[in-house]
Amino acid sequence: MINDMTKGNPLSLIFWFSVPLLIGNVFQQLYNIADIVIVGRTLGMKALAAVGAISPIFFFIMFVVVGLTSGFAVITGQSFGAKDPQGVRRSVTVSTVISTGITIAFSLVIAILMNYILIWMNVPQEIRYDAFWYIQIVIAGLIACNAYNLLASIIRALGDSKTPLYFLIFASVLNVFLALLFILKFHWGVPGSAVAVVLSQAVSVLLCLIYVKKRFPILHLKKADWLYAVKKDSIPFAIEHLKVGIPMAVQSSILGLGILIIQSVCNTFGSDVIAAFTAALRIEQIATMPMISFGIALAAYTAQNFGANNFNRIRSGVQKTSIINISLSVIMTLIIHFFGSNIVALFIGKGEHHIIEIARQYLWISTLFYFFLGQIFIFRNALQGMGEAVLPLAASIAELLVRSFAAVYLAVKFSYFGIFYAGPIAWITASVILAAGYFTNLLKIVKKARVNYNLQKRLTA
Structurally, how many domains does the chain consist of? Predict the structure, then answer.
């Protein structure tokens, strides 16, 4: 169902749009969380460390794909907000052609360089074999990951956040079933878990295609739409997509690179610290899902209202979402503080007391700074919804530099305990930059709109 977000109560629209996204994001995390729980419970701590040591590469790849496809969907959403159905269809074909080509090239480069990446990340030799094959299988199926995220982003850009959720839930459950089948029945070990991820993502792509064909007439692509995507006439439109998509992909890859650097430092402290860090990060990803979901909802809301020149609605949406973020930050902090150890035990078992304590220490520190992380999602997505990609990119670069320096420097001073402060320090830095950029950018846009309105009024008088 298409949802016009240019009218109606902003808070209600963003909230109800974000609820399916929240559920969907939680289930999407099950793709990797299922690996951690199943591998940790059935194959042992070394196998868990192998998946954990290489997981930042998995997330780095995901960040690039999601950033690229989300950026392209901003143009789709703006075309929809401007009531331009042909622009919507052409945005879909241009996005498909470009993202597919970039994904294939990106996959080949990463696969060829994988051995060097594992060495650079300080992955211990005893777990390197499993880590290598896990990530290589995931890379081989990256085209399915790109297809699902592109389809889901396009559907959400048109205001439908529920449909991708249903397919994602089914695929996530299928992933758990397949992982158990391949590991316990077929004895494929860690690589079996990666095969389950790829196959379940392929199923979600198929379900999205069937639904689009049956329920979205505006996305029924014609031969002319596909021909347009490969002609010279489409170059300006393609550049418009790339101006948003590439910075968002680079921005996301920068975030992923920051995690890679922290993981490479963490890997030097042995399997126990790797396993603890892996479990703690998965818990944190679930805890911050509501913030991420509201940010994604705000991007769709902002894109449509930007296309319709409803700037006051953009300001109202950001203000109300920020208030929600304060509440979410407090709630998530309390949950992690009181139940963090018990939740960690679900991943690795109650007998691993040393590993549980390390993970609990990380969560105890990071949750105190969730408010700043939430504001990053809000301001970044609002700016991207307005088509501003440079400033979020600059903030991401600053976040990478601060996170990397803090991780390396503090690890030397305080061992692995110092790594736990790298994220919070980076969150504060990026949130301040994005907040300043959002308010400055919105003032410029509103001022420009008023000038154009007054000029048009004089000409028609």
Answer: 1
